[in-house]
Design goal:
Number of strands: 15
Structural class: alpha/beta
Number of domains: 1
Strand order of the largest sheet: 6-7-8-5-11-14-15
Distance between the termini: 14 Å
Strand content: 15-25%
Helix content: 25-40%
Order of helices and strands: HHEEEEHEHEEEEEHEEEHEHEHH
Largest sheet: 7 strands, mixed
Radius of gyration: 23 Å
Shape: globular
Length: about 425
């Protein structure tokens, strides 16, 4: 635009250039209007109430055959991995599968191929990622699987730069790392259930294994901090399996497998739904948070032959085929997340907030081969989770979550660019 205001151009020529640009832009922008309004437009599933296979939105016809990066299959990728357990210091011991003797390596040589897309989902580009997030901040909010994801990101970015420790607490559960060249900070916030929770009181035998969950109270360990961040990625799942007593307004309203007299078992799905509803409300009601919230959907475990404490294990060496049906619990957790996301999305639109869906449950469901199993510790180690089918080896399938994350960040960046164009033309 600086060129158009130069005195070296005659006024008629300047007018001609402005008119030509305006005509071109007003021709192109309507084609992308749904995408401008919602950068997830081509990515997300339609709510269950959507019955038509063809939808007319803003004069643009779209179908379910449009490119959806979250629907696809795993295909071989001989170029992977892009780091190793010896080149990345951010790998926790219980995810360092190669260190503890995992003999096979095929599980690290796959990438995600979306169905119905002209191009594959590009593998993670650390340079592009760091340029997009230059001068910004990103928080991973959740449990150890969320931290597993953040460690994967650090390892992938190690191809460009290692961060410096910028933690404000001497606590691994609340760590921060800064990439000084790019002025980019990532942080992890530990929260087991997203809402306020109190661990079991072993001094009281009848409550020795029970969590107290306050389902309509936020966990302030993370909600009080999110105003400092441009991107917040929330996830939750496996801790909700644990027996819990449910409170609302500080009154017991039920439980999950508490086996206490005169208390209704509402099941873990009740608590799971309420936890996400409370978390989304806290974010959308926050006056300090003006960034983008991403829901990272449930990452399933893959125990076979028994539960985690009954000899269950995950010994598969390859991904499932794309038509493999999810187990019932995974489907229920995922469905609850989607329903609560759509509910929050409507509220976000009214408040001018941005909430996006990282719907990676199906992709991760197809990777029973990517867990540490018994290769997360020494053979003689006395550990609680002897066969780990919850977390993910590094390097491993969880690295591909950052392929999805980068794709979403690119769309957010594109939306911002088009908004600037609109502003220039207004």
């Amino acid at each position: 635009m600086e060129l158009l205001h130069s005195a070296t151009f005659p006024s008629k020529q300047k007018l001609l250039i402005v008119v030509t640009i305006a005509i071109a832009l007003f021709t192109i922008i309507p084609l992308f209007y749904p995408f401008v309004e919602d950068p997830n437009f081509f990515l997300k599933e339609q709510p269950p109430t959507q019955t038509s296979n063809i939808k007319l939105q803003n004069s643009v016809v779209t179908t379910h055959e449009s490119c959806d990066i979250f629907s696809g299959e795993w295909v071989p990728n001989p170029e992977a991995p892009y780091y190793t357990n010896t080149t990345c210091w951010a790998i926790h011991e219980h995810q360092n599968c190669m260190k503890f003797g995992r003999p096979d390596t095929d599980f690290i040589k796959w990438k995600w191929k979306p169905h119905g897309c002209e191009d594959d989902l590009p593998v993670f580009d650390p340079f592009r990622f760091l340029e997009i997030v230059r001068g910004k901040t990103m928080a991973f909010v959740g449990d150890s699987v969320s931290r597993n994801h953040m460690q994967s990101l650090i390892c992938l970015l190690s191809q460009v730069e290692y961060p410096v420790d910028a933690s404000v607490k001497a606590d691994d559960y609340f760590s921060r790392w800064t990439y000084e060249t790019y002025n980019f900070t990532i942080a992890t916030f530990w929260t087991t259930h997203l809402v306020k929770s109190i661990e079991p009181d072993h001094a009281q035998p009848e409550h020795a294994d029970l969590f107290d969950l306050y389902l309509n109270e936020v966990d302030e360990s993370w909600t009080a901090e999110i105003g400092d961040f441009d991107y917040v990625i929330i996830s939750s799942g496996h801790w909700h399996y644990r027996p819990s007593v449910y409170y609302e307004n500080r009154t017991i309203i039920g439980c999950h497998y508490c086996q206490l007299p005169n208390i209704t078992d509402l099941t873990m799905f009740y608590g799971y739904r309420k936890a996400f509803r409370t978390a989304f409300k806290a974010i959308l009601d926050s006056e300090n948070f003006n960034g983008v919230i991403y829901l990272q959907t449930y990452a399933p475990s893959h125990f076979e032959g028994g539960l985690w404490n009954q000899g269950g294990d995950c010994l598969r060496k390859q991904p499932y085929k794309s038509n493999k049906t999810q187990d019932e619990t995974t489907m229920k957790f995922h469905k609850i997340q989607l329903e609560e996301f759509w509910r929050a999305e409507e509220d976000a639109k009214k408040k001018g907030k941005r909430i996006r869906l990282l719907d990676t449950t199906q992709a991760m469901w197809l990777r029973p081969d990517g867990h540490p199993s018994r290769y997360g510790h020494m053979p003689e180690a006395n550990v609680t989770l002897y066969n780990d089918c919850v977390h993910w080896c590094l390097p491993g399938p969880i690295d591909n979550l950052n392929d999805f994350l980068l794709a979403m960040l690119k769309r957010e960046e594109d939306k911002g660019g088009l908004a600037q164009v609109r502003k220039m033309l207004s």
